Amino acid sequence: MLQALLNKTKGDRWIWLIIILLSLISVMAVYSATGTLAYKKGEAVEKLLLTKHLIFVLLGIGMIYIAHLLDYRYYAGISKVLMIVTIPLLFYTLIFGTNLNDASRWVKIPVIGLTFQTSDLAKLALITFLARMLTKKQENIKNVKESFIPIMGSVCVVFVLIALANLSTALMLFGVSILLLIIGRISIKQIAIVCAGGFVLLLFVFFLGPRRKTYMSRINTFMHPEMQHSDKTFQADQAKIALATGGVFGKGPGNSTQRNFLPHPYSDFIFAIIIEEWGTVGGIVIMILYLVLLYRCIKIVTRAPKAFGALLAAGLSFSLTIQAFANMAVAVGLGPVTGVPLPLVSMGGTSMIFTSVAFGIILSVSRDVEENANAATKEDKEKVKNKVIIGEIPAIA
């Protein structure tokens, strides 16, 4: 049965390997990071959290497998439905969303009681929708009325709705959108207008939005940590201690001490815990995995026979790698504190699912690239065979 499953597994083998490695690292890191909760609330809590995380990791791998079997062209139609659902859901989140850490980013799913960040769904929806629109409008891509306004309208609406509750995620998604516009042959003049408009929207959200005090506080804390109270720099300080005490090779798995002090060692600051336990070497390995992922995805983009597949793989891969390096930058003190998880590593149920679907879509594009390459090779062999039969090429004895 396992062999039959492996035979049906298609797509880039390197990406599959990266998925498995990141999933294993995730299980080990989360198990170690939840030790504090076990100490405070009892061993049963640790087992419950690890079991829950294992279930979501396995469910995520299952989602990757299912998503990669579906022809990526179907996601063009699905993207329209996702956008229709996402925009009202973002409105709902701002007004009625569950408030955690002074932000309404989460929506509670009825019956099962789980919460999820609507921005995770919005990222997937906007990237797939942009890939579809850019492909569909290629013949009139320079036309402002027919192409530019509809495309940028969707980007701006999603950006503002996410930014009002989660500025860091909105900025990363806006950056990915700009990269897609460049790849999609939008003119430089129009992209400059987009960037200017995005800057105006950013100023509006930053100075007039409901979380303006939080955003300004985080920027001030990052720029001038020496002038802040210790409670404002607490997370960043504890993360730096984890990095400093980890050294080159780390303290060893399960030996972290800063997990006892960091508020979210199993999600936002899991990279700091990984470096503390596995050292600088462990941190470099994680970075290399994401860089290899980006490299393999770029190869898929360059080989994709259809524009939609290329744009889809590019957008999703940029989104995953930018998010990964943003999380790592925060953990090592190169950026202000945000709530961005490390893709496929941080603990988080629904974010793990949406990340897995993104990986599955990339592998679906990769599977199509492989099938086209195999078909072309087979066709070339048939042509050579036919030429040999009719005597155009002498057969080799």
UniProtKB/TrEMBL annotation:
It is an enzyme of class 2 (transferase). The keyword Transmembrane applies. The chain crosses the membrane at residues 14-37, 49-68, 74-97, 109-131, 151-184, 191-209, 269-295, 307-332, 344-365. It is found in: Membrane. GO terms for molecular function: lipid-linked peptidoglycan transporter activity; peptidoglycan glycosyltransferase activity. It holds the Pfam family FTSW_RODA_SPOVE. Its main location: membrane. GO terms for cellular component: cell division site; plasma membrane. This is Probable peptidoglycan glycosyltransferase FtsW. It comes from Pedobacter terrae.
